[in-house]
């Protein structure tokens, strides 16, 4: 079999099927990808009409190619135009906070408060945070920001007994983990996480500022403190076009 050249991490044979027939939109996508590389971050893409004329295809073919590039995070909408997006944020799958992960990449982390409410713990939530059914718990909901760009949505559930002054002492735009560590002396021990792809609900899409059809990365986390006691349950929703996740594996 003849060897083919390809870049590590890229699709083998640039995604061309073995029968050699390339969908027309995919050929256009490959050519637009080269154009994206030439333009660089922030560069303005020609209009659909201009691209259709340049590549001698229909505007619908161009539209399908651009739709995939938008979903992959290589392009983003800017007003009525389309520009080249920056690299995705790499978030480690670890007990480091969102704030720490974003700062490591030279971006400015932030959070915008949606709501902080106190309610009676339902039976389904109680085991995850070590609460009794009906016990008071906090629900903290915030939009995640990177350089003022909305990139995700985070919901945190924790017992009121563990953080009784959350509504008084905590700054909603700061790190919750930093608050636990620095103000309350609570350290993290370990956590269980589940990662899956989902579509945002209409409410979530509106809060994050994305189309409902944009794939999202959803992380469920249940954390325990340094003594092994249940501490928090977090539901974090990240834009699939702006995030990738990394982890380090080793053989035990």
SSE diagram, text form:
Layout: H1 24-39, H2 48-55, H3 59-71, E1 75-78, E2 81-84, E3 89-92, H4 98-103, E4 109-120, H5 126-129, E5 136-146, E6 149-159, H6 166-169, H7 176-183, E7 188-199, H8 202-208, E8 215-225, E9 230-239, E10 243-246
Parallel strand pairs: 3-10
Antiparallel strand pairs: 1-2, 4-5, 5-6, 6-9, 7-8, 8-9
Helix pairs in contact: 1-3, 2-3
Outline of the structure:
It contains eight helices and ten strands. The protein is of the alpha+beta class and 252 residues long.
Give the strand tally.
Answer: 10
Shape: elongated
- Low-pLDDT stretches: 1-5
**C-alpha Rg (nearest Å):** 22 Å
What is the N-to-C order of secondary-structure elements (H for helix, E for strand)?
HHHEEEHEHEEHHEHEEE
Strand neighbour order, sheet with most strands: 4-5-6-9-8-7
Helix proportion: 25-40%
Question: How is this structure best described in words?
Answer:
It is a single chain. This protein is of the alpha+beta class and 252 residues long. The protein contains eight helices and ten strands. Strands 4-5-6-9-8-7 form a six-stranded antiparallel beta sheet. Strands 1-2 form a two-stranded antiparallel ribbon. A hairpin with a 4-residue loop joins strand 8 and strand 9. The chain is elongated and about 65 Å long.
């Amino acid at each position: 079999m003849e060897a083919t050249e390809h870049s590590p991490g890229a699709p083998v044979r640039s995604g061309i099927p073995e029968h050699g027939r390339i969908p027309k939109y995919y050929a256009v996508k490959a050519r637009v990808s080269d154009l994206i590389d030439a333009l660089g971050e922030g560069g303005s893409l020609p209009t659909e009409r201009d691209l259709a004329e340049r590549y001698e295809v229909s505007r619908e073919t161009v539209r399908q190619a651009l739709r995939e590039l938008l979903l992959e995070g290589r392009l983003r909408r800017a007003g009525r135009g389309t520009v080249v997006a920056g690299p995705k944020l790499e978030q480690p799958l670890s007990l480091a906070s969102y704030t720490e992960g974003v700062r490591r990449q030279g971006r400015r982390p932030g959070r915008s408060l949606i709501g902080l409410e106190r309610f009676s713990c339902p039976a389904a939530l109680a085991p995850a945070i070590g609460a009794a059914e009906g016990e008071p718990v906090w629900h903290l909901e915030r939009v995640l920001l990177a350089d003022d760009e909305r990139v995700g949505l985070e919901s945190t559930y924790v017992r009121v007994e563990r953080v009784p002054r959350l509504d008084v002492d905590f700054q909603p735009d700061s790190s919750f983990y930093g608050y636990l560590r620095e103000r309350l002396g609570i350290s993290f021990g370990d956590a269980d996480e589940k990662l899956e792809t989902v579509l945002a609900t209409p409410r979530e899409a509106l809060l994050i500022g994305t189309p409902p059809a944009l794939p999202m990365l959803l992380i469920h986390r249940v954390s325990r403190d340094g003594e092994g006691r249940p501490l928090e349950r977090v539901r974090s929703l990240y834009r699939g076009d702006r995030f990738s996740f990394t982890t380090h594996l080793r053989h035990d």
